[in-house]
Write a structure and sequence with these properties.
globular, about 10% helix, 6-stranded parallel sheet, UDP N-Acetylglucosamine Acyltransferase, domain 1, mainly beta, 20 strands
Amino acid sequence: MILFAKIIQHIYACIRRLHFTFLSEVSYEGKPIKGAPLLTYGKGRIHFGSGVRIGWIRGKSFWNSYIFCDARESTSQIFFGNETWIGNDFSAVSEGPGIFIGERVLIGTHVDIYDSDFHPLSPENRLGGEPKKGAVTIQDNVWIGNRVTILKGTTIGAHSVVAAGSVVSGTFPERVLIGGVPARVIRSLE
């Protein structure tokens, strides 16, 4: 009985991945190892380095979520460095200068990354003005915990850790623990 259940589970997981592949509007560069379904949109460039893993079948929210990458404008780009691991229910939306994720980055579940505000803050221009934008750079070997939101213009230095539940905006040095809402440096990492 257990073997039969595992076979059905594997078949259904393959069907889900194929379903999201057919729904995608843009092709991407590279060959990520797909645990979870991947949905790609936009006019820009999406690149996966070698050995990038997206989602995992035994992870939380595998059966009701997917990985979402949207490079909305022709100049937008989303870049994942080699051997990066992306948790389930991840989204990266680039409407500005891009999202650049380094090598060997660990990304938890329910993580959102944006390089734009998408709408101006002033009520008069909210529906038609130009939003603020800024590239997001996550350097090599960073660990991002679950339920983290990373906002436009953020740079996270190499070998740092972002605590679960943080909202990150700004520039952070290498080898630090970052956490909170808004995120701040909690301590150095040795």
